[in-house]
């Protein structure tokens, strides 16, 4: 069926008059009439009958007009949907992130984004950096927020947001609280370590190796950041953590930072994406919002 002719018929049926339909379409009345005649020939039925200055729909015309109204109503919905999808106000955004950005950065950004784009479906997955890169490569996520220095797959590109400082942290009444000490001195204290494989633990081990210092005593190993911090808050040991993870506790006076001479370790936080792929509009909006937030 000729959809162009069907649309002309639909508008004529809605207006009840060929002349008014032609004026709305900005085409001549004979052209409208000719197209509807072709449609009648195509389907083998008469759709319109003259009625004074207007037209009368035949029984077949009445039924076809009902179906045409649904068809072009759906077309209108499709056009609105495509426009919304194109401008990023609807769609789906899949994000993957490592623990640090997922817990201390993304909640604020996601809340701000959803207030601005409430109809966009957002899915956030938290995992380690290797799995995060795998999800990007395998099209299970569109953008990733990854903490730490590491080699990135050549299929991916990264943009560093900022560098987060790494701090030695103790109980507020610890003898080293707010003091300046040497690396040798702090390493003599018992440490509350995260599980093997944690980024902070790996950085601390590397720091000892670089400075030819024995690794600190593992006073306690805990699989969980909050649990490790709570133990230190109760007065035991030292922990080594991202400033993002502990700055609120320090601001409240629950913990204290130790200033270790000559040590300035930083943990980069990066946005990653597939190198050759064009980002969806929701992803573009989200990244732009994050960059603007970081620049302010």
TrEMBL record:
Transmembrane segments: none annotated. Keywords: DNA-binding, Transcription, Transcription regulation. PROSITE patterns: HTH_LYSR (PS50931). InterPro entries: LysR_HTH_N, LysR_subst-bd, WH-like_DNA-bd_sf, WH_DNA-bd_sf. GO terms for molecular function: DNA-binding transcription factor activity; transcription cis-regulatory region binding. Pfam families: HTH_1 (PF00126), LysR_substrate (PF03466). The keyword DNA-binding applies. It comes from the Bacteria. Belongs to the LysR transcriptional regulatory family. This is Transcriptional regulator.
């Amino acid at each position: 069926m000729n959809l162009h002719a069907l649309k002309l018929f639909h508008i004529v049926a809605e207006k009840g008059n060929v002349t008014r339909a032609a004026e709305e379409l900005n085409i001549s009345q004979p052209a409208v009439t000719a197209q509807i005649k072709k449609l009648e020939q195509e389907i083998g039925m008469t759709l319109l009958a003259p009625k004074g200055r207007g037209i009368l729909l035949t029984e077949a015309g009445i039924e076809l007009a009902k179906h045409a109204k649904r068809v072009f109503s759906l077309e209108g919905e499709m056009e609105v949907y495509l426009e919304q999808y194109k401008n990023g106000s609807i769609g789906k955004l899949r994000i993957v992130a490592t623990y640090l950005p997922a817990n201390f950065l993304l909640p604020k950004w996601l809340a701000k984004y959803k207030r601005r784009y409430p109809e966009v479906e957002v899915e956030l997955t938290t995992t380690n950096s290797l799995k995060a890169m795998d999800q990007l490569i395998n099209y299970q996520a569109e953008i990733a927020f990854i903490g730490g220095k590491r080699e990135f797959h050549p299929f991916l590109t990264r943009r560093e947001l900022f560098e987060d400082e790494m701090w030695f942290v103790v109980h507020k009444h610890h003898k080293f609280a707010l003091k300046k000490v040497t690396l040798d001195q702090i390493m003599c204290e018992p440490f509350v370590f995260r599980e093997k494989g944690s980024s902070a633990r790996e950085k601390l081990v590397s720091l000892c190796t670089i400075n030819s210092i024995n690794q600190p005593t593992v006073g306690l190993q805990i699989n969980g950041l909050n649990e490790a911090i709570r133990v230190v808050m109760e007065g035991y040991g030292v922990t080594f953590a991202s400033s993002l993870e502990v700055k609120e506790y320090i601001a409240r006076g629950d913990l204290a930072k130790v200033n270790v001479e000559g040590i300035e370790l930083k943990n980069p936080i990066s946005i990653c994406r597939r190198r050759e792929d064009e980002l969806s509009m929701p992803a573009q909006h989200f990244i732009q919002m994050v960059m603007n937030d970081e620049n302010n």
